[in-house]
Each structure stands twice: as structure tokens, then as C-alpha cells.
Write a structure and sequence with these properties.
There is one protein chain. The protein is an alpha+beta fold and 143 residues long. It contains two helices and ten strands. The longest helix is centred in the last third of the chain and has 16 residues, at 127-142. The radius of gyration is 19 Å and the shape is globular. Strands 1, 2, 5, 6, 8, 9 and 10 form a seven-stranded antiparallel beta sheet that branches. The chain has a three-stranded antiparallel beta sheet with strand order 3-4-7, with no helix packed on it.
Length: 143
């Protein structure tokens, strides 16, 4: 019987609220999903220099996925302890996902920006699609 559990790892120097909140604000955390009884890896490091991200883990060799906008896998490395991804000109962000036999680690995305101001995407309403879905809600239960 397999046990499934998930948690967040936070890189704070102490468990004080100030340090934990500061680490979260700076993106020094990652999510872990465990399927089984034993954690078999941990995140070791994430480094970004110029347009290249290098990520490493400890424990067993892992598969690294580099995922970009729209969930597109932009790169992979199989059964290794570290992997590197160089941002393409069209990448706005990359999220690394590390998979082992017992775990999946979801690293916070690395967002590309000009160094002065983070991008602030704006939400828009697709009125045609919204009304279509509302109509489906009314029609489907009536059927």
C-alpha cells in the first residue's frame, strides 16, 4: 500500500515567522510530493547565471524537466544528479520539476525580466467564452 503526502520545503535560517515569511517572499521554497514511504532525494541547489539555470539534487539520480509557458516541456535530463537549462529568447519563465522513483519536487519558476520591474500580467475577460460556458451550465442540467 502506497502512502501519498505533499509538503513545502522552506529555506529559512530559523523557524521564526520573520525568517519563514522572508524566505517565502524571496521564493526560497519548493513543493514536494511523496508517493511511498521513503523520501529518496532533496533539492541541493538552484543557480542562475546569465541565461543559464543549473539545478542539483541529492539522493538518487533523477529526471529533470524544464517547463515553460503553457506547460510545454522545454528540456529534460534523465537519471542524473544535476541538470542545466539555457533560456531561449522566447522563454518568459522556466519551472524545474525533479522526479525520482518516490518523489516529485516542484521548484519555483525562474522568471525572466529586465532586472528593474517584475512583469505584471493582466487578466482579461473572454466574454464570448464566458457566456458560452454559462449557457452550457443552464442547458446541460435541463437535458
Amino acid at each position: 500500500r502506497r502512502t501519498f503526502i505533499a509538503w513545502n520545503m522552506i529555506d529559512a535560517p530559523t523557524p521564526s515567522a520573520t525568517d519563514v515569511i522572508g524566505a517565502l517572499r524571496e521564493g526560497r521554497s519548493y513543493a514536494v510530493s511523496l508517493a511511498g514511504n521513503n523520501a529518496d532525494a532533496a533539492l541541493k541547489s538552484v543557480e542562475v547565471r546569465d541565461a543559464t539555470m543549473t539545478i542539483a539534487s541529492t539522493g538518487v539520480p533523477a529526471t529533470y524537466l524544464f517547463i515553460g509557458q503553457d506547460g510545454v516541456v522545454r528540456g529534460t535530463a534523465n537519471q542524473v544528479m544535476s541538470a542545466t537549462y539555457t533560456f531561449a529568447a522566447t522563454d518568459t519563465y522556466i519551472r524545474a520539476v525533479i522526479r525520482t522513483p518516490n518523489m516529485v519536487m516542484y521548484v519555483n519558476p525562474i522568471v525572466r525580466y529586465d532586472g528593474a520591474k517584475l512583469p505584471a500580467p493582466a487578466a482579461t475577460v473572454d466574454e464570448t467564452s464566458t457566456w458560452f460556458h454559462r449557457a452550457l451550465i443552464v442547458v446541460v442540467p435541463a437535458s
